[in-house]
């Protein structure tokens, strides 16, 4: 019996074409993983398109192939469609429909919960990053691990482990990272761009959001909000919101950090937690998802209303965890 990565490798090696799709609001894991898989397909002579409904954030534009990522879905479906890190089909955003029309749909994900859509489901919540799962597929495809490929996979792993600092980091993660560095991938290249570079507007936005920081549940919850007006006044873009929620969690005694971002699609809520408080459980109560330590969802309603409902759900989860 072939393993799941072997089965997926066999399909990708022989398909006439493939469409590889990232989730909306893409991060380093899904972008690095999707680009790595496309590079491996290319080495097998398979034309693979990569799609990202929300484009590529500036910090990830150094990734090889990122300039060829489609932001609008192709009209014609490909023989194989691969959903990368999508816990449900709708997470593929504008690409969901064309992805679903692929003859074979492959679903590769590591979130706590996944709706198991598609013909082949490779779901491994123990993987620190989807990049770990993609590495297994690429190994089974038996293509050379080029420097570009290694850089894409390393970016996935470095970002989803918070530079190897999150509890999801395992010996498997570190061994893989060592192999990728040996193949020419650079960890400082990721750290410098993703963690050590900000725009002036981004820093001003950080200041404004920390200015309105609030605590709840006797200091166990920290939250703040970002509005379009704040973005405008700071001269910041939507990409600059990333990372603010991680800082809120640093406050001593805080177990849940929440960032509310008012967007045209509703209020986007970013959640970070620790001490066994399940961020994904809070998100799932609102139709979202994620991991134990990091999750999110988007809700309709006014900012005040979404804040009140989310704080109530977070307090409930705090009680369940203690
Ligand atoms: P972030 O706050 O960095 O955007 O997301 C943290 C984690 O939660 C990521 O793993 C992301 O995929 C997941 N996540 C964020 N928003 C949503 C959402 O609306 N639905 C689902 N299913 N997962 C989400
Ligand atoms: Mn991930």
Protein architecture, described:
The protein has 322 residues and is of the alpha/beta class. It is built from 12 helices and 11 strands. The chain has a 6-stranded mixed beta sheet with strand order 6-7-8-9-11-10, with helices on both faces. A 5-stranded parallel beta sheet has the order 2-1-3-4-5, with helices on one face. α1 (4-14) packs across α4 (130-141) and α5 packs antiparallel against α6. It is globular.
Summarize the structure.
The protein is of the alpha/beta class and 322 residues long. It is built from 12 helices and 11 strands.
Give the H and E element order.
HEHEEHEEHHHHHEEHHEEHEEH
First and last CA, distance: 44 Å
How would you describe the shape?
Answer: globular
Task: Extract low-pLDDT stretches.
Answer: none
Q: Which percent range describes the beta-strand content?
A: 15-25%
- Biggest sheet, open or closed, and with what strands and sense? 6 strands, mixed
User: Please, how many helices?
Assistant: 12
Tell me, rounded to a whole number, the average pLDDT.
97
Which molecules other than protein and nucleic acid are bound? guanosine-5'-monophosphate, manganese (II) ion
Number of E strands: 11
Helix % is 25-40%
Radius of gyration computed on alpha carbons: 19 Å
Structural class: alpha/beta
The main sheet orders its strands as 6-7-8-9-11-10
């Amino acid at each position: 019996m072939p393993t799941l990565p072997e089965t997926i490798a066999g399909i990708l090696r022989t398909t006439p074409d493939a469409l590889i799709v990232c989730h909306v609001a893409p991060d380093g894991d899904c972008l690095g993983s999707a680009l790595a898989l496309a590079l491996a397909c290319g080495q097998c002579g398979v034309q693979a398109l990569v799609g990202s409904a929300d484009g590529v954030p500036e910090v990830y534009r150094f990734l090889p192939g990122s300039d060829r990522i489609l932001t609008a879905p192709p009209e014609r479906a490909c023989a194989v469609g691969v959903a990368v890190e999508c816990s449900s089909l709708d997470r593929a955003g504008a690409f969901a429909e064309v992805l679903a029309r692929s003859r074979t749909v492959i679903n590769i994900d590591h979130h706590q919960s996944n709706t198991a859509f598609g013909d082949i489901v490779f779901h491994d919540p123990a993987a620190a990053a989807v990049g770990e799962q993609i590495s297994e597929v690429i190994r089974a495809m038996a293509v050379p691990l080029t420097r570009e490929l290694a850089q894409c996979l390393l970016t996935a792993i470095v970002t989803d482990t918070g530079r190897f600092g999150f509890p999801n980091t395992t010996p498997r993660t570190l061994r893989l990272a060592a192999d990728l560095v040996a193949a020419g991938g650079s960890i400082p290249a990721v750290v410098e761009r993703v963690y050590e570079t900000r725009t002036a507007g981004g820093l001003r936005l950080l200041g404004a959001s920390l200015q309105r920081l609030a605590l709840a549940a006797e200091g166990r919850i920290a939250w703040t909000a970002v509005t379009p007006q704040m973005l405008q006044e700071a001269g910041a873009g939507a990409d600059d919101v990333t990372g603010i929620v991680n800082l809120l969690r640093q406050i001593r005694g805080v177990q849940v950090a929440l960032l509310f971002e008012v967007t045209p699609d509703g209020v986007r809520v970013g959640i970070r937690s620790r001490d066994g408080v399940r961020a994904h459980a809070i998100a799932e109560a609102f139709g979202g998802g994620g991991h134990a330590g990091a999750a999110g969802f988007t809700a309709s309603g006014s900012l005040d209303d979404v804040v009140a409902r989310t704080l109530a759900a977070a307090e409930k989860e705090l009680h369940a965890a203690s």
